Each structure stands twice: as structure tokens, then as C-alpha cells.
Amino acid sequence: MNKVYACIDGLDTTTAVIDWAAWSALRLEVPLELLHVLERAPEMPHVGDYSGAIGLGAQEVLLQQLSALDEQRGKMAQEAGRQMLASARERAAAAGVQQLDGRLRHGELVDTVLEFEPDARLFVLGAHYRASSPSRIHLDHHVERVIRAVRRPVLVATTGQFSPPERFVVAYDGSATAQRTVETVARSPMLKGLPALVAMVGADTPEAHQQLQDAQGLLQAAGFTVETTLMPGEPEQVLPALLKTQGAALLVMGAYGHSRIRHLIVGSTTTTLLRLSEVPVLVLR
Prior knowledge:
By secondary structure, this protein is of the alpha/beta class. It has nine helices and ten strands. Strands 3-2-1-4-5-10-9-6-7-8 form a ten-stranded mixed sheet, sandwiched between helices.
């Protein structure tokens, strides 16, 4: 696990993905690899599908034209990918990254990510929505599929703007998954020096206060300055509202827990908190 992989696609969050990946690689002191995957374009109907409408001679001409167009489209996509990677390398180098490489691959993003997972410290990618804030409806399926598939941390740029984080917020619920998340943060150099807020949503009980105190103590022992907050309500409403008050923050949470926070991480068709968060999200496994 010795590289940060930045998955870039040329869409609106690409520059933020590059910047977050560069920031992460410098914090972790590991190389950065820029990755662009050329996925197969949707197949066009076979010329034979039009056999009732055009003659055999016309079918042959049309087939040749479609083949030429497909070849031209492939070459243009490769050239655009190479130019994108070159620009991304320049941007990352300007941010101070010295150990830097780029890779152009053909295939599916998730398959490619899984191929590189053994060598990965962190994956960084951007979320693209089919509806604009505040009524984001669908999360890009690539994000959800990558989070489901890999066992490495995933940092998701939820907007196209990068600002170095001034603090981080841990979404905590006292579960074993949340505990492992806090332990991972405590061990990693990525967030060292940043103040932390451990946020729990739920009933005001002695058990909840003890769980927060335990999480706070673990991070403080690792050298973090830590505050805690316990808030009533529903997590999907309370946490996004809290994040709006935190300035340039990074949300940290675990994936696939077994408590109320679970539906914030992986839903049937959406990843709710990723969909609602206006700050980048670091998902830990």
C-alpha cells in the first residue's frame, strides 16, 4: 500500500480530484498515480437491425462508415485522455508532488481499481450528480460501486473546488465500524495536526457520552485536538447541517456499519451522506 491513485475523468470535479490527491500524497509521503480509464462506449445497433428499411448495398456502406466513425472516436478518446493526464501531471507537480506518474487504461473503472488495489494507500475520485444542490437525487454509480468493491480508503470530492481542510469531522455512532474508523485516523499521518470534531447523532444517554469520551481519548492520545458533540435528530438531516458550520472541513466515516449510520453509507440506489454532503468525504473500511 504505497500509492495514492487519482481517478480522473475530465468532468467537473477533475481538478478537485487532482488537488485532493496531491494533498493526500504529500501528507502520506507516498507517490501519486493519475489514472484515466477509457470505458467502452454504448454499442450502436447492428446494421442488420435496419435491414427492413435499407437495401443490402446500403447496409454495407453504412457498416463501413460506422466502423470508421468508431475507430475515429476511439483515437480521439485516447488523445483526449493523454492530454488530460499531461495537464493533470502539470497541476500535481505544481502542487509539490515529485513522485508522480500517469496511466491510461481501457476497461471498466471498478475492475481497474481492483487491479491496483494491492498497491493502493488511497483512492481519490469525484462524485457527479444528476441533480444540482440542494436537491441532489442520484449519486454517480461509479462512486458507489468503487466504495462497495475496494477495501482501501476512498476520498470523494463532492464539489469541483478544493480547499485544504482546516479540520475534520468524524461521523461516530459507537459501533465497531466507527471505532475502527477512529483507530485508523489515529494511526494515519494523513490528518495529523488538524483539529477534530467527533459527532454523534442520537439520544442523550450516559452510554453515548462514554462512547464519545472513548473516541476523544483515543484521538487525543495520538496527538489530536478533539471536540465532541452529541445531537438529537436524524443523521441524514443533522450531519449535513453540522458540516455547513465547519468551514473547510473533511468528513470522515466508516463504510458498511450495522447501526443507524449504515444507511448513510450504502443505500439501495444512493449513498445518502455522500449525496448530501457539501464537503469532501473520506470513507474508511
